[in-house]
Amino acid sequence: MKPLRLLTLAAAGLILAGCQTMTPQERRARDETTCASYGFRRGTDAFATCLQRIELDRRAEARAFRYDNDLLIGRPYYWY
Length: 80
What we know:
The structure is a single chain. The protein contains 3 helices and no strands. It has helices at residues 2-18, 24-37, 45-72. Helix 2 (24-37) packs across helix 3 (45-72).
């Protein structure tokens, strides 16, 4: 049973190692592409608003994830 467990952990580690986090520049480029795909033109207020909303959504998701994880492990939630 131990070899199977070890193999499973090794496979999970390799999968997680392959999931690279995006650099801020890559994330910004992806966000700009998303806003452009919605029809917003670069350099306009609407484009800037689109970028801002994407970032606000990302932050809200991070807060929700942090809150959910705190509840799962039984820790009190504090605003950081």
